[in-house]
Design goal:
The complex is a heterodimer.
Chain A (H helix, E strand, L loop, with lengths): L6 H15 L4 H29 L2 E4 L10 E4 L1 H23 L3 H4 L3 H17 L3 H20 L4 H32 L4 H7 L5 H19 L8 H4 L5 H26 L7 H21 L3 H22 L2 H32 L10 H4 L1 H15 L5 H16 L2 H27 L16 H23 L1 H16 L1 H9 L2
Antiparallel strand pairs in A: 1-2
Chain B lengths: L1 H19 L4 H22 L19 H32 L8 H7 L10 H10 L2
Classes of the chains: A mainly alpha, B mainly alpha.
Chain lengths: 497, 134
């Protein structure tokens, strides 16, 4: 089954090229986009089942043996995240086709979106630190285009900040790669992990912190998150959804992969990671409380949720890492759904500012139900999937004896409920406060409406399914965590015995 | 030679960082260019120096390490593409505002308080902030 591994990277790139060739026909472009991503969902699921049953699949491009050639590694962690990512990408593409706006007006949307999909998949599947850089750039360059499609004043302003920050992060990444290469003479992750043993402990810790900063900018952890609430809300709503659901998670993936694989236990900056996690959770949620615009509230909440995942990693225990893996899966689905719901609110009421809208529980009851399920899941109310992820994180923290950060996470949980209830009260429950109440937009057609609601509802159903299938999914997360903590096994798979 | 290259990289990083902290978009872009050059130079410094690495032209132990050069080449191509995008964004920003400065975030201003007027906000920005604020 090893031929399946490059498919999630190659297929969307071919699709992107074809999409440009048939640029005159929007129907053909859509057919290509939907077919490619639907195929990738199937491929990702098959790959995940295969990897879970028979162990890690390693592919060497051109049969050049690692560490010389380009290596792609599909282990349980990569395969699991790939499934969640492809499902989210597919759902958002359908939503984007339904929504009047970005996808309809711009010929480059479909190709940029497919390049983004290829970049996300490549980041998960690569076994080589330099290719991780290339995959990041692929994903980010596509995201620059998607963020600034249309070139409106606000988009140009926030797009500029976003591009500059990302480029600084990439430059730091190249710098880190140069230093790593001069110290070890390799960029293959498995090989790096072996050679890291020869370095003095101080140098290893410096590399660990340097990589944490590089990926921390992409993952939006404190104090490097400031660009996110500024950039994300400006993009068209499907784009915001896919950015929020996936791009930050790719940053988290890179943090987890590099910290656990490259560095032995004594070189990991565990205390720094826990302090960063606590600050990220707290600052994110306090920012969310101050906002009036739904998308800005959700963007700040997203930052705060990133803190939870970083916290779970900071424990560096089996239970902690398993809880993080489960959280990431839950979070990709729920955040994407929540931002799509925000887009629907925007559409059904004409504004995303809480002071201008209200009373939607009567005008759009189904939307209200979808929002309630996802928001409560994000806040961690039982029996939804967010509760399971937070419960596992708290349990892991208590076992590891980090009570202070657990206390912070519980307070933040409460404040998250508060900020979600603010949206609920403002948009759904109470009448609009303002005289300048927004006017609902008219749906352009029934099909457009169905195409927007169906993927959102499907993602909400997925989040419910995660809660129902929590048992098997959690034991899969535990197997994944065991893989992640076993550095020798990964090195053996890639470099051979 | 290594010290010279390292010093050059350090100089590029320093100038690039200084320019990045300016408010003019054109300076920020030039700063980013210098910063990425510094990083690429560091990549080149990471490899071993020596003869051109072509098989059959000499002893393998005397060859230069070709990998960092390949990596630097990739990095140069990527930053070239992104810089072009950045320049076109800056040009668009200039077309829209007739100004080369980094724009303030209107949403931030609205949250900070509609009554507070900051000196660094341009007149045009204030009009927009008032229109959008309730």
């Amino acid at each position: 089954m090893s031929w399946l591994v490059p498919v999630p990277v190659v297929l969307p790139l071919v699709g992107a090229a074809l999409s440009i060739l048939v640029g005159r026909s929007r129907v053909a472009q859509r057919a290509i986009g939907v077919t490619v991503l639907a195929t990738l969902v199937v491929v990702a699921v098959v790959l995940a089942v295969e990897v879970d049953r028979n162990g890690t699949v390693v592919v060497e491009a051109g049969d050049w043996p690692a560490p010389m050639g380009i290596t792609m590694v599909a282990d349980r962690f990569a395969a699991m995240l790939l499934v969640a990512a492809e499902v989210a990408l597919f759902a958002v593409l359908v939503y984007a086709i339904g929504e009047p706006g970005a996808e309809r007006n711009h010929v480059g949307f479909q190709s940029a979106y497919l390049v983004l999909a290829a970049g996300v998949a490549a980041s998960f599947l690569t076994g080589d630190l330099f290719n991780l850089f290339v995959a990041f750039e692929m994903m980010l360059t596509a995201s620059y285009v998607l963020l600034t499609l249309g070139g409106k004043r606000e988009q140009v302003r926030s797009g500029m900040t976003y591009v500059v920050i990302s480029l600084i992060a990439s430059t730091l990444f190249v710098t880190a790669l140069a230093l790593l290469y001069s110290a070890t003479g390799t960029v293959n992750m498995a090989d790096l992990a072996t050679r890291m043993g020869e370095l003095p402990n101080g140098v290893r810790s410096a590399f660990a912190v340097l990589l944490l900063v590089v990926f921390g900018i992409k993952a939006a952890v404190f104090p490097l998150f400031f660009w996110l609430p500024d950039a994300y809300p400006i993009a068209p709503s499907p784009i915001t959804a896919v950015f929020a659901g996936l791009l930050t998670k790719v940053g988290i993936y890179a943090i987890i992969r590099t910290q656990l694989l490259l560095f032995p236990e004594e070189a990991r900056p565990a205390t720094v990671i826990l302090v960063i996690a606590a600050a990220t959770m707290l600052v994110g949620v306090l920012g969310a409380i101050a906002q009036d615009d739904i998308r800005r509230i959700l963007s700040f909440t997203l930052v705060s949720q990133i803190g939870y995942m970083v916290m779970g990693l900071g424990f560096f225990t089996l239970a902690g890492v398993a809880a993080v893996v489960f959280s990431i899966i839950h979070h990709i689905v729920v955040t994407t759904a929540l931002f799509l719901v925000a887009g629907l609110i925007d559409h059904a009421s004409g504004s995303s500012q809480l002071s201008r809208i209200g009373g939607m529980v009567r005008t759009a009851p189904f939307l209200a139900a979808m929002f309630l399920v996802t928001a409560l899941s994000l806040a961690g109310i039982p029996p939804l999937s967010g509760f399971i992820s937070k419960f596992a994180l708290v349990q892991a923290g208590i076992e590891a004896g980090h009570l202070a950060v657990i206390a912070v996470s519980l307070i933040v949980s409460l404040l998250t409920v508060f900020s979600m209830i603010r949206i609920w009260m403002g948009a759904f429950w109470s009448p609009p406060e303002d005289l300048a109440t927004a006017k609902p937009l008219r749906w352009s057609s029934g099909a457009s409406r169905a195409l927007m609601i169906a993927p959102t509802a499907a993602l909400v159903a997925c989040s419910l399914a995660i809660a129902i299938a929590a048992g098997p999914l959690y034991s899969l997360s535990e197997r994944t965590a065991r893989d992640l903590l076993d550095r020798e096994a990964y090195i053996g798979e890639v470099l051979g015995p | 030679m290594t010290v010279l290259l390292a010093a050059a990289a350090a100089g590029l990083f320093a100038i690039g960082t200084y320019l990045l902290l300016q408010r003019k978009l054109s300076r920020i872009i030039i700063g980013l260019g210098l910063l990425t050059h510094g990083a690429n130079l560091l990549l080149i410094t990471a490899g071993r120096r020596g003869d051109p690495p072509i098989v059959g032209t000499g002893p393998e132990s005397a060859f230069a390490d070709p990998l960092p050069q390949a990596l630097a080449l990739t990095a140069i191509v990527i930053t070239f593409g992104v810089t072009v995008l950045l320049l076109s964004l800056a040009f668009r920003s200039w077309l829209l505002t007739r100004d080369d400065e980094v724009q303030d975030d209107v949403g931030d201003r609205a949250v900070a308080g509609a009554d507070v007027v900051h000196d660094e906000v341009s007149d045009q920005e204030q009009v927009i902030a008032r229109e959008e604020a309730p």
